[in-house]
Amino acid sequence: MILKATGISKSFGGLHALSEVDFHINEEEILGLIGPNGAGKTTLFNVITGIYNPEKGKIEFNGEDISKYKPFKVCHKGIARTFQVTRTFLDMSCLDNVLVGVIGNNPKLSPAEKKAEAIKHLKFVGLNNFVDTEAKNLTLVDKKRLELARALSTYPKLLLLDEVLAGLNTAEMREACDLINIIRDKFGITIFWVEHVMRAIMEVSWRIIVLDHGEKIAEGLPKEVAGNPKVIEAYLGEPNA
Amino acid sequence: MKATKILGMVIILGIFLSMPLYIGAYWLHVAIISLFYVMMASSWNLLAGYTGQVSFAHAAFAGIGAYLSGILAITLHVPPIIGVFIGATIAALFGFALGMLCIKMGGIYLSLTTLAFSEIIRLIITNEYELTRGTMGLEVPNLIGFYSKPAYFYIMLVMSIVFLIIIYRIIHSDLGTTFRAVSNDELAANSLGINVVRVRIVAFVISSAMAGFAGAMFGHYLLLISPDISSLGQMFLVLAMTIIGGMGSFVGPIIGAFFLEILSEYIRIYGEYHVLIFGVIALIIARFAPSGIMGIYRDKLKIKWKEVS
Questions:
Q1: CB-CB neighbors (< 8 A) of A88 in chain B
Q2: How close A58 comes to chain B (CA, Å)?
Q3: Given an 8 Å threshold on Cβ–Cβ distance, is B184 in contact with A92?
Q4: Cβ contacts of B195 on chain A, cutoff 8 Å
Q5: What tens digit of pLDDT does each residue of A41-61 get?
Q6: Exposure of B34 by Cβ count < 10 A (0-12 exposed, 13-18 middle, 19+ buried)?
Q7: Which helix (H) or strand (E) covers residue A73, if one does?
Q8: Residue A95 is part of which domain span?
Q9: Which of A90, A225, B91, B241 could covalently link to B41 via disulfide, CB atoms 3.0 to 4.6 Å apart?
Q10: Which of A111, A137, A155 is the last residue before a domain boundary?
Q11: Which CATH code, of 3.30.1150, 1.10.10, 2.40.128, 1.10.3470, is assigned to B2-308?
Q12: In angstroms, rounded to a whole number, what is the distance separating the alpha carbons of residues A114 and A128?
């Protein structure tokens, strides 16, 4: 078990974005997170990565309580993420974008080693021809690739992906799913991802968690979850209503 | 490319070094003031242009440096050469405190807080007349013990070059990369393992130390310092120089400082209208060249480069 969360609660004013959520992530698995809009998926990511601190509950990463850590410290512990709406450093080159991750986690490397590291990760995601391109000039797909390269440059043990497939066409989705599998198989990085494209998340994930109105309503193998009446109700509404 | 760059730098340095030989005392005075503004605008650019913290307290830090060094020289007879360093250190401490205060703020809130700080400093300097002699101005001793414009010109030139080398090295280092990352997207930088709070504070401390130092140096040249040095008018001049020259570029503030200082000498004859002319220039630049004079230059260069390739 790489991450264990117990009783996570977080509210914004009167809105309970997360209430008493328990879940765990096994080492080197691909865990999917689904739920209707506003279910609290991104909030859960933000709580794990330290952008918000949970009001109640505890998050343990490799046995260490990280629930009060700031984002940069969570990153140092080995959790990296991408964002639902891409947050690349728009005025900086792709190389510099990835360099930030290298500097943040391996500050002692020499400048040449840092650059080599960054280029290695850019190559991995297929951006080797855009090393000096400013991020604002990239297409959406390439911005997503850049975010992935940036996240990988921090050498995470756990990678959180927030709707990486949104806005991609079928071929690009295929490629992205392959990449996710490669990241797990080749680097042994555990993956926890949110996705609205059901076919993709059902196919790639080993296990799935379902959130609705800030509560965990189901958990299990993709097949089990897809057939769960509670899940179907959350997405489609009550039968005979 | 590299050879031409070095040649260009040598020529510029040559022009500057020989300046006292062919320009009169009046223009030498203008050159010294310009060099002061080069230090001010470049160090403000490091904070505002690179980390995106648009602080209005830069002139206040210059005031802190100038008055502290001056008062120490008068009351405790501290040699000004040591005084300027003490002034810079205290300005850095104030910068640290102000930076801490502004940690949770960004954009307009940070600007307003620093603006208030700047006004507080100006009011203190104006009203503590027993120590600062208020608006009458404080007479301070010369930095080097004797009065010589060419000598002071060379001192300011060397200090400006030292400043620019430090700033150049910072923006081309890892620290500079994290500065830009924080200004682009603080949250993303934080999630990538960058201690954003520390980066922002470091920028505040470095730039306010530089402003304090520049202010103290300038004070010991003027020999009479008034609360004007920490006024918002002074601040907006530094801001205009940076923006007109090109915020977030290394050369921009240097060009902006010389351009506006020399220009203001020419339009001085229009009296009150010279503020109006500044305003019009700032408007034109903002409309047609939002990234300043350096922006125009860079765009031209890019077009040329495209034509070649």
A1: 185, 188
A2: 20
A3: yes
A4: 70, 72
A5: 888 889 999 899 888 888 888
A6: buried
A7: helix A71-77
A8: 88-155
A9: B241
A10: A155
A11: 1.10.3470
A12: 16
